[in-house]
């Protein structure tokens, strides 16, 4: 099974989540990013409308500053954060959310995620996210780094299904079965580390494709993400790269080129394994 293509139009375009919230499919990640507030303002100026942070990143305050001091109205910006592992569990998660919101200086978050599937805790954490959602403190809720068996365990007891699953996703880690499962269950897939922590720039297959299309390697990979129906959040603090990353809406990869990138899959992670992490 291949993932159905979704319509992508421009940098500010959206995919519709299963609760009818429109989530931008292209955004800025800020993990280990310098000058975060400036990067956020540059991204919003370039047309980005999603910013992804997390409590553990230590920069929610700067993200909030960038959003508040930009010329883009708050209601047009989609802000994501995540509950860290040490704060999982029902009561702790509610407190962690309030702390994140206070750090951003915003009135609400658009998306709140469970950062990792901590065994014995993530289901109670999800109950807390459901309460936040029902209390309208957040527009959508989801998970990050959840494999199929984690999702099945969550869905078996959930009142509200996750709207998003944010996963490591790149040409060496496609996980098409998981992508198909999320698609079938109306869980929007979102890519973190789409550029393989920089390793993607060493791959001749993608370099050749970039030359053929007159695009950069990063632009090829990010376009591939979107054509697979995967939202994507490349990170950068450099304005020129932030603008260049978004310049992917004036070309389209052929089905053969999409398949070429799919076939590079090695089930290789550059980040932690969701089934074997110790933090």
From TrEMBL:
It comes from the Bacteria. Belongs to the aldo/keto reductase family. Transmembrane segments: none annotated. Substrate binds at residue 115. Its EC number is 1.1.1.-. This is Glyoxal reductase. GO terms for molecular function: oxidoreductase activity, acting on the CH-OH group of donors, NAD or NADP as acceptor. The lineage of its organism: Bacteria, Pseudomonadati, Planctomycetota, Planctomycetia, Pirellulales. Residues 29-264 form the NADP-dependent oxidoreductase domain. The record marks 82 as: Lowers pKa of active site Tyr. The gene is yvgN. Gene3D superfamilies: NADP-dependent oxidoreductase domain (3.20.20.100). The active site is at 57 (proton donor). It comes from Bythopirellula goksoeyrii. Keywords: NADP, Oxidoreductase.
